[in-house]
Specification:
15% of the residues lie in helices and 33% in strands. With 238 residues, the protein is an alpha+beta fold. β8 and β9 form a beta hairpin.
């Protein structure tokens, strides 16, 4: 049963869009971790939702289950399971979930739509490298995995392009690396693009998710508008 949650009960940095007995869907603010990291184990969406479903009961053992993640600097839609059965179903069917992002990249792209495909591997410094072959780069801590990203330009300014991105795979930093591969890094991405003191926000947003409910098996579609700084940079309403 769907429950509409009054805004005053929303965890800080995570706007609750949907909740029933099986799943929670919300819009994550940029800068908030999905799960704990070495440098921050407490201020995460996961921990905030655990507190939310426990309703202040310190003895409660209720917890949410992480289905997928977003980079700390990325805003947008996240899905959490409330039962192990829901988690198992969503994990097994996650490749079939339609995942669409919005991003603002540097400059105008000569090809207004296309596909970027490469093998990605991560080094010990958490930097993801792209290669045309499955051989991992020197110092890689994980095997190289194929990644595929579809993109389409939907708006342009003289300096920037707003693009819609559909993921075929969901590798770590995939969109950020693939846009840098094209020579059009995401604005605000100092890890894979130029350092920009004027653009401190990463212009990457998980905009739309289409999935099958783990219990009812009905299709669900969620959208979350991008942060206002997207419109500010483009100088136009989205």
């Amino acid at each position: 049963m769907f429950r509409k949650i009054p805004r005053k009960y929303h965890p800080r940095g995570f706007e609750l869009l949907y909740e029933d007995n099986d799943i929670i869907v919300g819009n994550k603010a940029p800068g908030l971790l999905t799960v704990a990291a070495k440098w921050n184990r407490d201020v995460t969406v996961e921990s905030a939702l655990n507190q939310y479903i426990r309703k202040g009961n310190a003895r409660s053992t209720k917890s949410v289950f992480v289905v997928h993640r977003l980079d700390q600097a990325t805003s947008g839609l996240l899905v959490f399971a409330k039962t192990e059965a829901a988690l198992k179903y969503l994990k097994a069917n996650w490749p079939a979930v339609s995942k669409t992002y919005l991003a603002i990249v540097h400059r105008q792209l000569p090809q207004k739509s296309g596909v970027v495909s490469s093998y990605l591997s991560e080094d010990e410094d958490y930097h993801v490298h792209s290669s045309t072959t499955p051989e991992p780069v020197e110092g890689a801590v994980h095997d190289s995995r194929l990644a595929e990203t579809h993109y389409e330009v939907i708006r342009e300014t003289p300096k920037y392009s707003l693009i819609r991105i559909s993921l075929v795979t969901g590798r770590k930093n995939q969109i950020r690396v693939h846009m840098a591969d094209l020579g059009h890094p995401i604005v605000g991405d100092s890890k894979y693009g130029p350092r920009e003191p004027a653009n401190r926000n990463l212009m990457l947003h998980a905009w739309r998710l289409e999935l099958t409910h783990p219990f009812t098996k009905k299709p669900l579609m969620f959208e979350a508008p991008p942060p206002r700084y997207f419109e500010a940079l483009l100088g136009t309403a989205l």
